[in-house]
Design a protein that fits this description.
The complex is a heterodimer of chains A (297) and B (365). Chain A is mainly alpha-helical. Chain A is built from 13 helices and no strands. Chain B has two domains: 230 residues, 3-Layer(aba) Sandwich (Rossmann fold), CATH 3.40.50.300; 116 residues, Nucleic acid-binding proteins (OB fold (Dihydrolipoamide Acetyltransferase, E2P)), CATH 2.40.50. The chains are: A mainly alpha (297), B alpha+beta (365).
Chain lengths: 297, 365
């Protein structure tokens, strides 16, 4: 009898818990729907014809699916006088982002390794200064950077943009790698030194192979930053070297006459796809890399 | 033979903090030197200085007769085993062991031969293709030893290699290291905070405190003739009894008076030591206060003592009493008749006692 009386309130609280859980799921589901709404509208609109957009409902599914808008966005839409779509600018972005990510990640790894494992006089000061670099707003560096690029003779070129992104990225990449490497016991470096390995050997053979999680984090971070950048792209590029974000802006803002919403939407999705892709492919490592600090030997 | 390791007037400081003060140590080939002391005494720093991983502020280090003070670690002809083992996490056991040879450009055939040799010696052949993460603590320890052994260096350095193992494994590995030292006849420097490890392994012990060497000597010298109160207290378990006492000169030697809370003081006569100052601290090892029937030496003298606590520990039974205002431990045999709260006749072996000056802590006899 005592068992029954004991189990009763417990049972009630259990149903209470289940109800609470469902309420929670419902709320989360609604938030997710709300959050996904713009994407839904973008995709459906990009698949509609202009005619249908004009006559139909904003959130209705397309009556007739057409990829014309995507084709136009990729290779026919006009950015000012030229009508080549986003394609050339997309490749500009690729040409900027890939070396930019690779170089800044490698430099960050190197810096992090030095600051974390080779404690020299002033290491912490140098690290603090680099960290400070993360917090300088973009707008502040625009003019000096333009002057710098001019002096170096790479103003308005793709290498110039790579240079800007590498410089601006080093602060973050160094921070990531430093925090990762600082949790690796210094005895590892000592053992390698006794074994006869030098500075670069220890970096290549011991630290870099350990760094996959943090490399993934850094690559995602840097790729997103560089790919999505607009301000540097618009400031330091010229006609042929604009990245996709700038081209997208030009497509959307420079059309005359009828606004081709379907083309705008398709172009916007194309511009956003690579970062989405990188996150989907490597996102699992992103979370893991952010949380995993120590290396258990 | 010239010493394999010779440290002369070594100083080390971080900024204005002196970590090591005027260290002078030398060992002969085949010696097993143990640096022992409480944490923060500078023993690990000294080892790192020997390895060349820490620059020194003054003095010199010679290894194998050559001045190595300014030489980088890789050229000192040393191998080192670390407390955390410091195995390279992304490399297999085999790669861990051969990494040093690979870096030095030793050819593949030699690498394979030496690897096989060391793996057989340490019985780690089945582990060669595993990663450190897949090994147990004891196995990692062996691999770390293998990495050092394969180098065949002039000098082995060990930085508390057993302190991450559980108690049982620690004792096993201790025996193994000792056996290895015997077999190789190699010269070793070993850092530990465990005085039992120091006693069992060493041919020579350096006791350190606060960056200063307290005593250098063989294990028996350190144990039987500690140079000061710190060494007396640090080495041995249970620790040496340090009892404040009064010394008076007498015709047949020195009368040692130990005050007691209740009753007359214990009076013992030491026939070996004369010329002691009046105030002394008497150092007696627990095993030198024993059941009367066990000791027959002429220096043994008996006295009635009031036992406070009796602690059976299997092979021995420890009895604790109050003498001279201190807890004093006696090591009695397991079948002892001592009972808490009762008087018990105990014999003091005065042939093995130490005397210390209360002010300076230095040894008097």
């Amino acid at each position: 009898m005592t068992d029954l009386s004991m189990s009763r309130p417990q049972g009630q609280s259990r149903t209470g818990k289940i109800i609470l859980r469902w309420v929670l799921y419902l709320a989360l589901g609604l938030f997710a729907l709300f959050y996904l709404m713009p994407l839904f509208v973008m995709i459906t609109t990009s698949l509609k014809s202009l005619e249908e957009i004009r006559t139909g409902d904003l959130i209705a599914l397309p009556r007739e699916v057409t990829f014309d808008a995507w084709r136009t966005a990729w290779s026919g839409a006009c950015t000012g006088v030229q009508c080549e779509g986003v394609r050339p600018y997309f490749w500009n972005s690729v040409l900027i982002a890939i070396p930019g990510v690779a170089i800044s990640t490698l430099l960050g790894a190197m810096n992090g390794y030095v600051v974390a494992q080779w404690q020299f006089r002033g290491a912490n000061v140098i690290f603090s200064l680099m960290l400070f670099g993360c917090f300088i707003p973009f707008q502040v560096v625009l003019l000096p950077m333009a002057r710098m690029l001019g002096i170096m003779g790479i103003a308005g070129t793709i290498p110039g943009l790579i240079f800007v992104h590498v410089i601006y990225g080093i602060g973050f990449t160094t921070l990531f790698f430093r925090n990762y490497y600082v949790s690796i016991p210094s005895e590892l470096t000592k053992a390698a030194k006794v074994d006869g390995a030098g500075f670069f050997r220890i970096f290549w053979s011991i630290f870099l192979p350990l760094s996959l999680p943090i490399i993934v984090v850094t690559v995602i971070w840097q790729f997103t930053q560089i790919w999505n950048d607009f301000l540097f792209g618009v400031s330091f590029s010229q006609a042929g070297t604009q990245p996709v974000t700038v081209a997208l802006n030009n497509i959307v803002n420079s059309t005359t006459g009828v606004k081709e919403y379907n083309v705008d939407m398709a172009a916007a999705i194309i511009a956003a796809l690579p970062t989405l892709f990188v996150y989907v492919v490597a996102g699992k490592y992103f979370i893991r890399g952010l949380t995993a600090g120590s290396v258990k030997g | 033979m010239s010493p394999i390791l010779e440290i002369t007037n070594l100083f080390k400081s971080y900024g204005s903090t002196e970590i090591l003060k005027d260290i002078n140590v030398s060992i002969e080939p085949g010696d097993f030197l143990v640096l022992v002391g409480p944490s923060g005494c500078g023993k690990s720093t000294l080892l790192n200085c020997i390895a060349g991983l820490e620059p020194i502020t003054g003095g010199s280090i010679r290894i194998g007769g050559k001045d190595m003070t300014e030489v980088s670690p890789k050229d000192r002809d040393i191998a080192m085993v670390f407390q955390s083992y410091a195995l390279y996490p992304t490399m297999t056991v085999a790669k861990n062991i051969t990494f040093g040879m690979k870096v030095r450009g030793v050819d593949q055939a030699t690498q394979a031969r030496k690897l096989a040799q060391v793996a057989a010696q340490l019985q780690i052949e089945p582990l060669l293709n595993r990663r450190p993460g897949q090994l147990s603590g004891g196995q990692r320890q062996r691999v770390a030893m293998g990495r050092a052994l394969v180098r065949d260096p002039k000098l082995f350095l060990f930085d508390e290699p057993l302190s991450n193992l559980d108690a049982k494994l620690r004792v096993e590995m201790r025996t193994e290291i000792k056996a290895l030292h015997h077999k190789l006849g190699a010269s070793m420097v070993y850092v530990t905070h465990d005085q039992i490890e120091a006693m069992t392994l060493a041919t020579k012990i350096v006791v350190m405190k606060g960056g200063v060497i307290q005593q250098i000597g063989s294990p028996s010298e350190i144990y039987n003739r500690p140079a000061n109160l710190f060494v007396a207290d640090f080495m041995g378990s249970p620790a040496m009894n340090l009892i404040p006492a009064k010394a008076h000169r007498a015709a047949d030697g020195t009368r040692i008076e130990i005050a007691r809370k209740s009753g007359d003081p214990i009076v013992l006569t030491d026939t070996n030591n004369r010329d002691l100052p009046e105030d002394v601290i008497l150092g007696v090892r627990p095993e030198d206060i024993a059941d009367p029937d066990l000791r027959g030496s002429e220096d043994t003298q008996a006295a009635e003592c009031l036992i406070d606590i009796v602690e059976p520990a299997g092979a021995d039974t420890f009895a604790v009493m109050q003498l001279g205002g201190k807890h004093v431990t006696a090591r009695l045999h397991s079948e002892t008749t001592a009972r808490p709260g009762e008087q018990k006749r105990l014999s003091f072996d005065l042939g093995k006692v130490s005397y210390f000056a209360p002010e300076t802590g230095l040894r008097l006899n």
